[in-house]
Amino acid sequence: MRHTYEYQPFSIQVYRRVFQRLTQQASENDHALDLIQSVISLLRQEKVILPAMTTIEHVAWSAR
Asked: Is pTM beyond 0.90 here?
């Protein structure tokens, strides 16, 4: 199914890309829920299988 829809697993490379983009957004708006929504949106745009919610929260908190 992953190959059919061209989704990729969440990896350290994906983490770094999302973190970099999120850090830019966090400088303008550091509200945690907005950052979490941004992480999810970025992962969906890049066709990445969403990791556990704790991982998404970690990315958002790290970018703050």
From this structure: no
Show the tokens assigned to 20.
């970099």
Question: Amino acid identity of 7?
Answer: Y
SS3 label, residue 14: helix
Position 63, amino acid? A
Structure-block tokens of residue 11 = 């990896």
Phi, psi of 2 (to 5 degrees): -60, -40
- Beta-bridge partners for 8: 48
Q: How many other CB atoms sit within 10 Å of the CB of residue 47?
A: 11
Taking only the tens place, the pLDDT of each residue in 36-49 is 999 999 999 999 99
